[in-house]
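Researcher: Next sequence.
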Amino acid sequence: MTAFHMNASLMIGHTQIDAEHEHILLLLDQFANCLKTDDKEGCAEKLGELTEALDSHLESEEKIMTGLGYPDIDNHRAQHQRARLKYLALIKKSQRDGFTSSFADDLIAILSQDLIFADMDFKAYLKKLACQG
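Model: Next structure:
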């Protein structure tokens, strides 16, 4: 890959991942507002949107990582899978028990694992590639 194409791919990947993170955070904020107003129908709708956005994000992020040769992709995929399983278990619990007072905090804790901590190493990898390009 030429230096130009590598740097373009890095910028596109970085921008896309950040845009997806912002969209997920917006949906989380909208969901929190539904919780505050006790809008159960709105909460269910926002969770559906959040689930779709999360699934799409995880898939596109893994494609970007693969395309850029991220050496720790298998570990990152495993982190995604663990976060998704925790997320789905929390959703299932809410369907059974309703939205508990800690639901939003639990949801944010699960998603921040992917949106912040799991991506830090990949961001460092992107920076390293950019410096080499």
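Model: The radius of gyration is 17 Å. The mean pLDDT is 85.
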